[in-house]
Fold this sequence. Notes:
Helix content is 33%, strand content 20%. It is built from 17 helices and 16 strands. The radius of gyration is 23 Å and the shape is globular.
Amino acid sequence: KRDDKFAQLTQEHVDFFKTLLGSESAVIDGTSQDLTEEMIPFNEDWMHKYRGQSKLVVKPASTEEVSKILKYCNDNMLAVVPQGGNTGLVGGSIPVFDEVIINMSRMNQIHSFDDVSGSLVLDAGVVLEAADQYVAERGYIFPLDLGAKGSCHVGGNVATNAGGLRLLRYGSLHGSVLGMEAVLPDGTIMNDLCTLRKNNTGYDLKQLFIGAEGTLGIITKLCIQCPQRSPAVNVAFLGLESYEKAQLAFREAKSQLSEILSAFELMDGLSQDLVHRVRQGKKPLDDEHPFYCLIETSGSNGEHDYEKLEKFLEDVMSNEIVSDGVVAQDATQVKSLWSWREGVPECVGHWGGVYKYDVSIPLSDMYRIVPDTEKRMREAGLLGDTDEFPVLGVIGYGHMGDANIHLNVAVRRYDKAVEKELEPWVYQWIQERQGSISAEHGLGLAKKNYIKYSRNEVFMGMMKQIKQLYDPNGIMNPYKYV
Ligand code: FAD
Ligand code: 2HG
Ligand code: ZN
């Protein structure tokens, strides 16, 4: 239910924003009939699962504009949703009712780069791929990479504390974000745009905004520690007969590839079959396997790394840990092998929709959630090969190196009966195994009712206190998890 404490948008409000932001393209005024269509992409998420009813998008171009917008909204009790590239998978960037959308796409400047230390200062609205390209030209790499890189913003990445494909190597954004500028709901600008690696002067307040999903304020600028880009990247793609063998392969990869290992990803057979059904093309391996792993190495000596990877592959094949495998021969093949992994989220949605669960589970139990879910769907009569069944398949894939699996239930249409069978059952399953119900995508709207499966009362109470302290009117991204 819409909270009556929030004001309804009036023409006077709209006029204020138009005057403040000046430029025509900086305000999309959905209250005027001819712009209702234009509002749709901002009101709907990437999966077409969540839809809001906002009538206004504002696009600030500077921190001062963000500050003035928030102060005005706070004074006038207008609820807001910060929005980056709108690629989030939990409905966090979508208004629930008529919240004002603060879209960050015009704040897209790169400010400075120190090519000795690797510290990069940039606006929150810079697209991740653009940031990576910029540092690539200077011999560095952005410490985060993910399938949505062409659209997501670095601010959105930090707001969700995204993990991605190389967390195993470069660690979490809690370590890579050196500095931050953010605006609180009352317009206060918190400037902690530190470019230093070390800074232990009291509370590290910026950490609160990393993963806060826009519930405390708007991130406007960031300083990111970028590591040296490895000149040599190699990729191997393996077929395995069981999840137990995938664990052995991971153990062996860490031991043999140690410091050059930069990604270890798991895909089950059905996930790869779905990618093949959508994209066609030649599969990386001739035969089908119940599991696949993608291993990437990044190092400074291509030949040496390639030899290490080949030797690893020989060993795991002769020990019968791995049934079959291939090592990419050139950069094109590296890209093509990665596309079988990165393509899963897009392809799995091809038939109508997906119920997504992004979870961390201790490795020994991690994959078991997939067959258990499949069994539950079958027993409920919801999964089958023909159109009468809403569910067409249950798949698991993800960042095995981080004990993070993506359980995806592919459906022909969104169906309440499926959702009822899955939730809260999935969350209970995870709780019983000391897992986390939200590994890297956040809570957003999708998981707002289920936090208790991963967090206790004391912890939730402390989160509410922080929210109350910085956002006493509750205007920042309401109806979501806090
Ligand atoms: P949005 O979706 O716009 O927003 C996400 C949340 O952050 C919302 O709550 C929003 O209110 C808030 N927000 C956005 N910008 C700001 C800001 N400047 N200040 C404060 N709050 C803000 N995630 C992973 O962790 N790992 C993956 O491997 C991964 N792969 C993906 C692959 C695909 C194909 C897709 C579609 C998504 C994937 N994601 C992955 C999900 C991931 O959360 C997002 O892609 C990304 O981090 C969100 O960035 P965004 O700019 O699109 O944010
Ligand atoms: C990935 O690892 C993303 O590909 C998306 O985190 C996962 O769509 C998903 O469930
Ligand atoms: Zn992921």
